[in-house]
Design goal:
Distance between the termini of chain A: 30 Å
Order of helices and strands of chain A: EHEHHEEE
CATH class of chain B: Alpha Beta
Number of helices of chain B: 4
Number of strands of chain A: 5
CATH architecture of chain B: Alpha-Beta Complex
Shape of chain A: globular
Number of strands of chain B: 10
Oligomer: heterodimer
Helix content of chain A: 25-40%
CATH superfamily of chain B: Molybdopterin biosynthesis MoaE subunit
Shape of chain B: globular
Helix content of chain B: 25-40%
Structural class of chain A: alpha+beta
Largest sheet of chain B: 4 strands, mixed
Largest sheet of chain A: 5 strands, mixed
Strand content of chain B: 25-35%
Number of domains of chain A: 1
Largest interface: A-B, 17 and 28 residues
Strand order of the largest sheet of chain A: 2-1-5-3-4
Number of helices of chain A: 3
Strand content of chain A: 15-25%
Chain lengths: 83, 155
């Protein structure tokens, strides 16, 4: 699946998007944050406060307990500040 | 008559007066137009800023604003709706966002603009970064914006 990062999450991770293949036991958005955090210091820094991070699956907002199976695109970003 | 919202996510500046004229041209059924323009301030928390840079999530920005436009059209008797949100570098004094609603009477037009702005602030995937003499920093979300959006879901 494709993972996208925005704003300071993108800056901390160091890439805007990438393709990842998480293991089968990574079922939810929250699991994916945990798995990504274990991939290195940049990820651990980006996701150090998981409660702050917002997520979208296929361009719609989701909660941390959302199931990721079948998702084409998952995005992680800080609270929005548009308008 | 079904109303289709005009939604644009663009880097270029826009002219609010032109957008209002486009919405009302040739119409005699519209009784009220309410416009909200969000403009880049030249200071943030008392400190001067050089510019804002807005990052957005292409695709989702259009989808999310479209969902809220559809909700506004179903909740209020609107005759026209235009939403424009810019991205990229925006200098103080320039437009950031525009919401224009048209309806037979003012109440629907006022309420729909407030509803849309409250949701744009908290749910549209845009992030502001400010540039100042001290460097650049991401603007933090405000709790009172979340509270403003939540009041529209109270029963």
């Amino acid at each position: 699946m494709r993972v996208k990062y925005f704003a300071w999450v993108r800056e901390r991770v160091g890439v805007a998007e990438e393709t990842v293949e998480p293991p089968a036991d990574v079922r939810t958005v929250s699991d994916l944050i945990g798995w990504l955090s274990s991939r290195g210091e940049t990820y651990a820094h980006a996701f150090e406060k998981p409660k702050v991070i917002r997520a979208a699956i296929d361009q719609a907002h989701v909660k941390p307990d959302a199931v990721i199976s079948g998702a084409r695109e998952i995005a992680f970003f800080p609270p929005m500040t548009g308008g | 008559m079904s109303v289709t919202a005009t939604i644009r996510i663009q880097e270029a500046n826009f002219d609010a007066a032109q957008e209002i004229a486009a919405l009302t041209r040739g119409r005699t059924d519209i009784g009220a137009v309410v416009t909200f323009s969000g403009i880049c301030r030249g200071s943030e928390n008392g400190e001067p800023i050089a510019a804002l840079t807005l990052e957005h999530y292409p695709g989702m920005a259009e989808a999310e604003i479209g969902r809220h436009a559809d909700e506004a059209l179903s909740r209020w008797p609107l005759q026209g709706l235009t939403i424009i949100h810019r991205f990229g570098r925006i200098a103080p004094g320039e437009n950031i966002v525009l919401v224009v609603t048209a309806s037979p009477h003012r109440q629907a037009a006022f309420e729909a603009v407030e509803f849309l702005m409250d949701y744009l602030k908290t749910n549209a995937p845009f992030w502001k970064r400010e540039e100042s003499e001290k460097g650049t920093s991401w603007i933090e979300a405000r709790d009172h914006d979340d509270a403003a959006a939540a009041r529209w879901t109270k029963s």
